[in-house]
Amino acid sequence: ADILDAPVDRPRLLETTAVGAAYLAGLHQGIFPGPEEFAQSWKRDRRFTPAFDEELRIRKYNGWKDAVRRTLSR
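Now predict its structure.
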């Protein structure tokens, strides 16, 4: 949230990616009627809100970009 400068919601179910993949497979097979049903099951556990000032956010973001660049250049 701090680096994005936007709120980030954490779901109650932390394995959301796996559940989403299973739901899409079930949707494709006609087991689930549509995305609305799945969306209703999503519940927020916690919302993280930005707390960094602009200068710190930019410094941290630039550090993150540098770490990614160094990782990808190996």
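The longest strand covers residues 44-48.
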